[in-house]
């Protein structure tokens, strides 16, 4: 019911504004005795941190995370979760509220300025307040904890399209993802993107992007039917990220053009012992989910991020008093928010899967992470 | 938490299997004193009912709905809701379980057969049991009740792509939608689709489709920030429909290729009295939602439905015992499940919006449906 | 959020009115492969069924339950749950709406007549509509399913006080409970109660009662801290039963008068193998719950039921139009609703524990029912 | 689902341990534009603060609260809520973990030591960790915010029994409550309690107590039927407070001994304009709640707090390794935790009512706080 909380058994509640003193989150439902330290969380925050290249906002935030509850040393001196809520805090350091005085009463097109005013009768205009992408830092922090809950699942995100320029999937290289400022798996495309985005940035403009997130190691059986479908949870998770306007699972929107023979993933004997008796799928159009439940294949999802709405070109708008104005957004902005959405997408995938794992364990009684699929023939 | 329930304040819980005696739903949180009769619900069920053309399954279900609780006559003799849960029941009439004996132990590719077995250790193989699209009848019934809660909002769905064939938006006609068996708003495309789908059907194959649902009359301010975003709720709602693999709001996946100047919707003075002081938007790339909150424009969403997985061409698979088999699905199936997904998509839009309306009223204190947007300048 | 639903992972949603055609419930989250048949449910409904002695209402309801979803035959032909929602229906047979015409506009003191009108602007006056104790039939049915989920836990309720007459605990006999019309464990008291309640009944009056419910076999560790405390869940469950005004765990309200030395339950070595290493408690003032979590001892709870508000003596009241009237309730009523609250209390205990078991399994990873307590010394 | 969250539309999530660096809470769903400052919250924290008399723990905690999100200055310079989550933080100052070394492995009788170990496989032994009454500081802080949401409702708590000594209700004085260290409304009893508790304290013992909380100004119609009953919410809220073992509404457990003529509250014409047409009740045995919905009378609830389990007398117990030990608790403890439970009980009442108000507004459409009851005769 709460709109600042995501998840059911693994529940993340975030708080804090872009220009407030502190942002934070409370993770409720994290199982006990999971080793957890601040550096483990920090490494993911560092991937999302602004100011790391000229292609992201120049706001300087160290994003140093502190664990203030839910963790203590066990008998061996290892810091582990206790089952109590894990609260994480990050102090804001580089907020400059004076940058925003002139948009105090003006509705920036593409932003949530007008809608917050329409809903609440006021809004925190300082850096976007609660609607700022600053909130996603806490998603990344919570996602780092979620990864520990499902430690055997590997999650990686990548940017597969920047503006109109898609990658060539034949050139996909996992190693390349961390070697360019775009999380781009195609080294050739990354070079072209650099030229393109430099040009966009210099114009004071912005562009959209598509992020793909893949999770490997999810056993068959996670998720649930109907309104608790794993893909419905993912759709909600990704669509809740700032600026996202579309979500796809597996073949996504392209399934419309397919026929039955090409869409369904055929199966063969899975090879017995090595995969716990699960069948081997001969393709993965379904993106690893059938009927809302994981198949044991890789979970594959994508989401589209719209261009940053803060641009230098003046745009027509109105202010709070109904007067017509032109709005031109200065300040420090990402020319493509899709880039930093990559670690955010990974985090939401981790949170959805950690929650699905705990729900499955509660409702059906599955074993520990890594629990193999096994059936006894009838 | 429940995976058979959708919604928060307006909550729909469904039950029943494809070949069980009865399917039903419980609608909790429906406000009191709303006129409600069975024929009002029946009209929407009739839109979804199978067997109305050769392009949908030939199963003959009258889908006659009964209201068994939550409604009584008021002082004037009008049947109205009482605030108690509204329970709706539909008896299954034309279920032929014997059709399914041969798939009892076989996993049909593209279906949820394997995943249900993996999760639960057994599955109801009779017509797909709970994973059957039969459940969507109750969504449509509940959606009819939701429409009464937000009576001033107009919701209409249409099929905008069938297989590889998209409509021409220049030819859009609302009137056309009800004049062909496809809910197609482009009369010219409808003719071509008939030829195409006849051919697909005769081959024993199937095809995908894209459904678009539009809601007009939603005032600014519905929805919520962050994890309660109106678009996140819609994404979850649509992705929970059988066979859906992608969801888009406004420009959807295409935003990736846009630049900031083209994506953001500019605003001008809205003309004062007539729209309660809300600005006029000069375009609607956002699909009527910014920051998760409605802008007052039309809410526009689309979802892609994969081809029916039940086809005549034999497909490679395995059975419950790990043996390799070929599966060929006979029985009565829709060659394109996307067609009957149109009224289902409308219903989910109605349920999401009724819930958003009640949540907004609870958390912010908005007035009755139709509540105009108004601000007092600071 | 829903006020017609109880539970989190094991969720029960009820619907239907006293004089409607059908009452029912949907049980969501019931684990799969649990054997379940209608007679198993019916036996508990028969304990609650009206008209079994002169001390309960003479309404004749067979309360024949039907399972309409969520159950099918497994490989061996046993009917088991499938993981899908279990829906149960009971048709009302003996409703006489004409009995209630004269209270249509009058507020009966002690009933929810005025408050429903105040909240909803109308109410279903026929037999109390939704506020009738008829709804508790579905609690008992759902409780029967919950018992199957935690099959190793033994739950029994008893009436320990009727009007001003408490039992003598020295004479407690489990066997006696089923041998008198009061669920009274003290055979001597049962005789005295018969005389007392006959006299009350003949006067057209009514009396209150105290119900005690005990659960044995709950392992240490169920429940949760803070707002998910097992005793908080029980308090909510029991207080939600019609006419309940007080709830106690263990020593209950009497703890106020105790001192620290007498209240805390001391522990000794538990005897090793037989109880999985858990300590033996030397007393049970805590009622089997410490910090909201089960200790492994018997869970002991009590609740007080107020006298039936429907009595023959005229009482001062007002009607819907603000006019002063005298109300005298004829019709068929229980002289002590506390009696039939015994199986209802048992059912709510079962539902709370089944939910606690699933939540524990999800959040901490406990084993199957019967899971022994075990620690590895640090 | 979360066990660190209370409420539905007005949701409070707490975190932090007794001896951690910081405790805090996140209040989600607080309506916008409500004036809110730190001193308004601080005044209630000061009522609960330890070390204010010799009858509470000597731990010195200033409990200085900081609002870190959800509040900003409006046009007039007033600090108001924005609709975003209100996060409150309190730094722990006077935690002495070394006090607790010797109970690290020992299970203190009456405490949650054994049960946390049984559930989680470890526990935070430092000052009770999460199970410490320290958490109730955040309840009081959140309750202060809740009071602002329902500003027209007056809530006051009092201690009505200390150990075996009950107050004389004939001597009740609201003014007296703040004039003694017990929140005792009977000045005569307060003197006797001082003598009694001094004696208990010097013995190193402790005693129980009964707290009564009354809310005036709640209009008819708040709360909901069935599982959302206002009294069920209160029962859960109070039972979730540390050491509480019983909860009563109105006449509470005593209703068992009543007969129908004495229990039901009769009604007369309410005097028209002044109370919006609601009837006048001639008594209040129901504690202001019928059928789970408020009657417009005062809401009256009580709860019993057990004696502090930390006492000087050695008690028999076991340690984590199964060895039998004697436990004697030194350190700083309240001889009667019931005293400081008074502001905590008030806070929980405020939270339950703020939530009920928002839920009512969402589901039925009630007006702003103070909304009068009104009916149009049929």
Structure in words:
The structure is a homotetramer of 378-residue chains. Chain A contains seven helices and 18 strands. With 378 residues, the first copy, chain A, is an alpha+beta fold. Chain A has a five-stranded antiparallel beta sheet with strand order 1-2-3-7-4, with helices on one face. In chain A, strand 14 (289-290) and strand 15 form a beta hairpin. In chain A, helix 1 (38-48) packs across helix 7 and helix 3 (136-149) packs across helix 7 (337-363). Mean pLDDT of chain A is 91; it is low at 367-378. Chains in contact: A-B, A-C, A-D, B-C, B-D, C-D. The interface between A and B is large, with 126 and 127 residues. Strand 11 of chain C pairs antiparallel with strand 11 (244-249) of chain D, so a sheet runs across the interface.
Would you summarize the structure shown here?
With 378 residues, chain A is an alpha+beta fold. Chain A has 7 helices and 18 strands.
List the helices and strands and how they pair.
Four copies of one chain form a homotetramer.
Chain A: E1 5-6, E2 11-15, E3 22-28, H1 38-48, E4 65-69, E5 71-73, E6 79-81, E7 86-91, H2 113-120, H3 136-149, E8 154-162, E9 165-166, H4 187-202, E10 209-216, H5 230-239, E11 244-249, H6 260-263, E12 267-268, E13 280-281, E14 289-290, E15 293-294, E16 299-305, E17 315-318, E18 324-327, H7 337-363
Antiparallel strand pairs in A: 1-2, 2-3, 3-7, 4-7, 5-6, 8-9, 8-10, 10-16, 11-16, 12-13, 14-15, 17-18
Keywords (chains A, B, C, D): Amino-acid biosynthesis, Aromatic amino acid biosynthesis, FAD, Flavoprotein, FMN, Lyase, NADP
Binding site for NADP(+) (chains A, B, C, D): 48, 54
Family (chains A, B, C, D): Belongs to the chorismate synthase family.
């Amino acid at each position: 019911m709460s709109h600042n909380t995501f998840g059911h058994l693994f529940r993340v509640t975030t708080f804090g504004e872009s220009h407030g003193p502190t942002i934070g989150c409370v993770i409720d439902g994290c199982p006990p005795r999971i080793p957890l330290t601040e550096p483990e969380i920090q490494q993911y925050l560092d991937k999302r941190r602004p100011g790391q290249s000229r292609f992201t906002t120049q706001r300087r935030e160290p994003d140093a995370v502190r664990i203030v509850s839910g963790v203590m040393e066990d008998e061996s001196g290892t810091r582990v979760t206790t089952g109590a809520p894990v609260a994480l805090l990050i102090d804001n350091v580089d907020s400059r509220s004076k940058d925003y005085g002139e948009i105090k009463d003006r509705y920036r097109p593409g932003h949530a300025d007008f809608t917050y005013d329409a809903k609440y009768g006021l809004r925190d205009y300082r850096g976007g307040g609660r609607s700022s992408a600053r909130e996603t830092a806490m998603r990344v922090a919570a996602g780092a904890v979620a990864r520990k809950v499902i430690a055997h699942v590997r999650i990686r995100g990548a940017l597969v399209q920047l503006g109109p320029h898609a990658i060539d999937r034949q050139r996909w290289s996992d190693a390349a993802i961390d070697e360019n400022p775009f999380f781009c798996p195609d080294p050739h495309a990354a070079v072209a993107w650099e030229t393109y985005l430099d040009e966009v940035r210099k114009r004071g403009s912005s562009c959209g992007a598509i992020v793909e997130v893949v999770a490997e190691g999810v056993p068959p059986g996670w998720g649930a039917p109907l309104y608790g479908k794993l893909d419905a949870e993912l759709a909600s998770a990704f669509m809740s990220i700032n600026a996202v306007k579309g979500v796809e699972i597996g073949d996504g929107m392209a399934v419309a053009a397919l026929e039955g023979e090409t869409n369904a993933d055929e199966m063969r004997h899975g090879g017995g012992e090595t995969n716990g008796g699960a069948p081997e799928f001969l393709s993965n159009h379904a993106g690893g989910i059938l009927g809302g439940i994981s198949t044991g294949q890789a979970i594959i999802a994508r989401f589209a991020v719209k261009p940053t709405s803060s641009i230098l070109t003046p745009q027509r708008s109105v202010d709070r008093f109904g007067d017509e104005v032109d709005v031109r957004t200065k300040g420090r902005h990402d020319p493509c928010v899709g880039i930093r959405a990559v670690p955010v997408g990974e985090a939401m995938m981790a949170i959805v899967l950690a929650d699905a794992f705990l729900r499955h364990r509660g409702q059906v009684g599955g074993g520990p992470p890594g629990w193999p699929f096994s059936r006894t023939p009838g």
